UniProtKB/TrEMBL annotation:
InterPro entries: PHb, PHb_sf. Residues 12-136 form the Bacterial Pleckstrin homology domain. SUPFAM superfamilies: PH domain-like (SSF50729). This is PH domain-containing protein. It comes from Anaerocolumna sedimenticola. Transmembrane segments: none annotated.
Length: 150
């Protein structure tokens, strides 16, 4: 499945994700990529990273005073089933994008478990572009999981 993200994100503040160059992310995180996986877009937040690839979303959380300990979490793109957004308002409001994904190993069944993850971006970030991309992906996943053809 192609997950081609366009250059739709701009700058950031210290408390929010800001876009990072793909070459920089590849240099730092290539050892976490699967065969055939490519970084399409990424963000940094102080020491942490949010990386979009053609297969999944990777979140890193560097811990401790030195940042040598790191937690890496992956969410498969095929498991994303819903997306919501909140654009920034007047004042200090941030833009927010929340995606819901199937966290259980099976995408179908009687005991499907869901989880959600909220991302915050600076006021000047155009969250609508990322929302559209993730919503299209969620819709494709909905059709595929439920064996619906258009």
């Amino acid at each position: 499945m192609a997950f081609g993200m366009k250059n739709i994100l701009q700058g950031g503040l210290a408390a929010n994700y800001s876009e990072a160059p793909i070459a920089e992310l590849e240099k730092e995180y290539s050892q976490y990529l699967m065969d055939g996986e490519k970084i399409t877009m990424g963000f940094k937040l102080v020491r942490d990273a949010l990386i979009f690839t053609n297969k999944r979303i990777i979140m890193t959380d560097k811990q401790g005073a030195t940042g040598t300990k790191m937690k890496v979490t992956s969410i498969n793109l095929l498991s994303i089933v819903n997306v919501s957004m909140e654009t920034s308002g007047f004042g200090f409001d941030d833009s927010e994008l929340t995606f819901t994904y199937i966290s259980s190993p099976e995408l179908k069944g009687h005991h499907v478990e869901y989880a959600a993850h909220k991302l915050e971006f600076p006021k000047k970030f155009n969250v609508q572009g990322l929302y559209k991309i993730l919503q299209e992906l969620a819709y494709e996943n909905y059709l595929r999981i439920n064996n619906i053809t258009e």
